[in-house]
């Protein structure tokens, strides 16, 4: 819903009723993740739920839902009779909730939109199917909630799970008994998390950092660039960064907010900066820690970090040389190789060319489901920058 939020709030604020279609479950090679939405008002449609495969059918269904006033859960997949008419030509299957939305059916939408704009965590739980009322909704913020899904025990169970998913930035389906029993699956609830964007901390105010900040912003990160040299760490040199900090990198990181969604890119390329910085970085909960440098620099860096007392388990977390082997040379190409490694790390891809693999294109997060052909050895690069049947859950 995030991708259509600005438009639907305008319709909502004007007192209109419109159809909102949201991907709530995906199977196999589905093109859009859970949470992707398309909104329909009159003859206007915004957003996408399948990249074009079933939008026409969803548009028609949304028109009908607005007229009837009843939410509908619809599954779309490949049709044996005519795979190109209403099915997904990629071979995937998607479940889509299509619901009528207005100030009467979703009175919290304005507050949800305000929270998203302010980067305030908020989760929206909606009943999809089961003994409850399809389309019933509850909205949860850090210290309060609005709405109800039914019995108090169901509300309490969903509240606990939704807040846990929100902390991890996860969106997906949870199943319960009619009164919130966790060992039953009579009732399915879709929880959509609107968490603040994950943070990308880029250290080293160099040209490579400017390109990494640019691609990090493109991928949806809140980007911070940090360097101890005020002449280089300026907003003019890093217009794409959300923050530019002038401070010794390890001092800044020692007090910065870091969680499992945080990405740390060490591009300082200087032992007096990167060794103290990595000492701190590898002791945090950051989901990714990468450092630029040649293989010789990497070996020297490891030796210094061992001398500083870091255990092998911590050193094993370090992605260095940073990036995938794409043959990158320029700062922009290097940024792409780093972005590619971040995506691979997040979703568990093999990093191989899809034409050299078989199996699913869109694997389940954290796994590498593709079968690889034998890989040849990779050349060593100068900077190590890339030279050298359960529905899937997603992050939002």
From TrEMBL:
InterPro entries: MoCofactor_Util/Proc, XdhC_CoxI, XdhC_Rossmann_dom
Domain XdhC- CoxI: 11-77, 116-177
Pfam families according to UniProt: XdhC_C, XdhC_CoxI
Residues passing through the membrane, by range: none
Domain of life (superkingdom): Bacteria
XdhC Rossmann domain ranges (all copies): 200-342
Chain spans, region Disordered: 365-396
Biased amino acid composition, Basic and acidic residues: 369-396
Name recorded for this polypeptide: XdhC family protein
Species name: Sphaerisporangium corydalis
Classification lineage: Bacteria, Bacillati, Actinomycetota, Actinomycetes, Streptosporangiales
């Amino acid at each position: 819903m995030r991708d259509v939020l600005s438009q639907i709030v305008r319709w909502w604020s004007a007192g209109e009723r419109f159809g909102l279609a949201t991907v709530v479950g995906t199977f196999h090679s589905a093109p859009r993740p859970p949470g992707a939405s398309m909104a329909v008002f009159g003859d206007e449609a915004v957003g996408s739920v399948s990249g074009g495969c079933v939008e026409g059918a969803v548009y028609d269904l949304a028109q009908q839902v607005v007229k009837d006033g009843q939410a509908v859960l619809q599954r779309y997949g490949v049709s044996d009779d005519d795979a190109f008419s209403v099915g997904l030509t990629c071979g995937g299957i998607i479940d889509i909730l299509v619901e009528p939305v207005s100030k009467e059916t979703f009175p919290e939408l304005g507050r949800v939109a305000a929270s998203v704009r302010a980067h305030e965590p908020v989760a929206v739980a909606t009943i999809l199917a089961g003994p409850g009322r399809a389309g019933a909704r509850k909205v949860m913020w850090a210290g309060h909630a609005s709405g109800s899904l039914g019995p108090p025990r169901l509300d309490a169970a969903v509240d606990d799970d939704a807040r846990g998913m929100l902390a991890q930035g996860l969106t997906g389906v949870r199943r319960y008994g009619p009164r919130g029993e966790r060992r039953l699956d009579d009732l399915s609830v879709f929880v959509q998390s609107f968490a603040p964007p994950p943070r990308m901390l880029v250290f080293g105010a160099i040209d490579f950092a400017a390109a990494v900040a640019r691609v990090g912003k493109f991928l949806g990160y809140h980007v911070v660039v940090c360097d101890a040299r005020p002449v280089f760490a300026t907003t003019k040199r890093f217009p794409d960064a959300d923050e530019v900090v002038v401070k010794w990198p390890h001092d800044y990181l020692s007090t910065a907010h870091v969680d499992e969604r945080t990405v740390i890119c060490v591009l300082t390329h200087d032992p007096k900066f990167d060794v103290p910085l990595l000492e701190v970085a590898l002791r945090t909960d950051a989901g990714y820690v990468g450092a630029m440098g040649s293989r010789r620099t990497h070996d020297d860096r490891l030796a210094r970090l061992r001398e500083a007392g870091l255990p092998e388990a911590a050193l094993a977390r370090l992605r260095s040389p940073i990036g995938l082997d794409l043959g990158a040379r320029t700062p922009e190409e290097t940024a792409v190789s780093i972005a590619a490694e971040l995506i691979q790390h997040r979703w568990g891809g093999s990093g191989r060319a899809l034409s050299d693999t078989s199996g699913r294109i869109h694997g389940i997060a954290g796994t590498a489901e593709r079968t690889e052909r034998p890989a040849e050895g990779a050349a060593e690069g100068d900077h190590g920058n890339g030279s050298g049947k359960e529905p899937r859950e997603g992050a939002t």
